[in-house]
């Protein structure tokens, strides 16, 4: 089964064609990073307009790269939640229209389910059940994947997502947007012990995260140094920040694993590309004799291949939509977002 998927939840316009949920036939991404970098973050209206300008081109390129015509597709999918609502509507409406014109099924996909599915494209042997640490720009949560379309949230952030904290700290350190890869690079070789940062815990919720205090601590440290005329060791501060984020995430994943007994561990989302996080996950998995699945860097960020992969399993479960399908700025990963009426 060959599925074309559209991803437009934030600032990447992407189209991909995946066969049977596992094989990448094409994967095209048009990024707006340079456009939004001058603003220090994503401007929703600008992102929506950017999607409209390139969505036809990336779709045509995906078909060309797969050496296919649109009539040869078996279904059309799109990210329908969560994300920037204007951006989501561009991709969802385009995909719905295409499905209607071609008389093909339309499959709405949850963005975070897609991030998890990115691992299906890299690892043929990966099957539920498994435990997933989701860490992205907008989401941080611990998810038990019971089946391909059945999810249980075991813990999550009480405030900021890990990726959002990276972007805010990057702005304070003057390295710009997007913050994740720039902070990771800056932290290499830095002395993580030079600055003391909070490693948060949530009382009575051992699997929950909190990054607001960490973000504020970095901002205050930088501002206090500036007022005193002191120079910040940016490499060391970036290293201390990465260490604090990892120490917030990995021990909770380890605790969740011990509580569930699940031996297969997955990481998903943009922060999964962070070298500090990947190393700590590898060490934790080795210590506990677990099977660890880390998506390749090319599939950590937003892309349509992961959406098409999840769409295959949504289709097999009967989760299809129609022309009345809406997009949603927020939706829990366990919700069925399909419009049936």
UniProtKB/TrEMBL annotation:
It catalyses: L-threonylcarbamoyladenylate + adenosine(37) in tRNA = N(6)-L-threonylcarbamoyladenosine(37) in tRNA + AMP + H(+). The keyword Iron applies. Its cofactor is Fe(2+). It is found in: Cytoplasm. It holds the Pfam family TsaD. The keyword Chaperone does not apply. Its EC number is 2.3.1.234. One of its GO terms (molecular function) is iron ion binding. Binds 1 Fe(2+) ion per subunit. It comes from the Bacteria. Its main location: cytoplasm. Residues 23-308 form the Gcp-like domain. InterPro entries: ATPase_NBD, Gcp-like_dom, KAE1/TsaD, Peptidase_M22_CS, TsaD. Keywords: Acyltransferase, Cytoplasm, Iron, Metal-binding, Transferase, tRNA processing. It is an enzyme of class 2 (transferase). CDD domains: ASKHA_NBD_TsaD_bac. Belongs to the KAE1 / TsaD family. PANTHER family: TRNA N6-ADENOSINE THREONYLCARBAMOYLTRANSFERASE, TRNA N6-ADENOSINE THREONYLCARBAMOYLTRANSFERASE, MITOCHONDRIAL. This is tRNA N6-adenosine threonylcarbamoyltransferase. It comes from Candidatus Butyricicoccus avistercoris. The gene is tsaD.
């Amino acid at each position: 089964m060959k599925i074309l998927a559209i991803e437009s939840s934030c600032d990447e316009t992407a189209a991909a064609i995946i066969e049977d949920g596992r094989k990448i036939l094409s994967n095209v991404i048009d990024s707006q990073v340079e456009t939004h970098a001058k603003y220090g973050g994503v401007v929703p209206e600008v992102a929506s307009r950017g999607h409209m300008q390139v969505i036809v081109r990336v779709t045509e390129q995906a078909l060309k790269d797969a050496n296919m015509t649109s009539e040869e597709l078996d279904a059309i999918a799109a990210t329908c939640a969560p994300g920037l609502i204007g951006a989501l509507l561009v991709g969802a409406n385009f995909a719905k229209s295409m499905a209607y014109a071609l008389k093909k099924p339309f499959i709405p996909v949850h963005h975070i389910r897609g991030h998890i599915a990115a691992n299906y494209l890299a690892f043929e042997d990966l099957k539920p059940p498994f435990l997933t640490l989701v860490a992205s720009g907008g989401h941080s949560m611990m998810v038990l994947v019971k089946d391909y379309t059945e999810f249980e949230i075991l813990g999550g952030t009480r405030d900021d997502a890990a990726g959002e904290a990276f972007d805010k700290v990057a702005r304070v350190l003057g390295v710009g947007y997007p913050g994740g890869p720039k902070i990771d690079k800056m932290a290499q070789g830095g002395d993580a012990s030079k600055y003391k940062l909070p490693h948060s815990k949530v009382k009575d919720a051992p699997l929950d995260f909190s990054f607001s205090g960490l973000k504020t601590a970095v901002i205050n440290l930088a501002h206090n140094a500036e007022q005193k005329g002191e120079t910040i060791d940016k490499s060391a501060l970036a290293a201390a920040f990465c260490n604090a984020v990892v120490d917030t995430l990995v021990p909770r994943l380890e605790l969740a694993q011990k509580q569930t007994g699940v031996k297969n561990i997955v990481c998903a989302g943009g922060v999964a590309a962070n070298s500090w996080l990947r190393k700590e996950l590898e060490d934790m998995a080795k210590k506990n004799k677990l099977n660890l699945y880390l998506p390749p860097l090319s599939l950590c960020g937003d892309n349509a291949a992961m959406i098409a992969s999840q769409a295959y399993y949504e289709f097999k479960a009967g989760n299809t939509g129609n022309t009345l399908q809406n997009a949603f700025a927020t939706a829990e990963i366990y919700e069925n977002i399909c419009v049936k009426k």
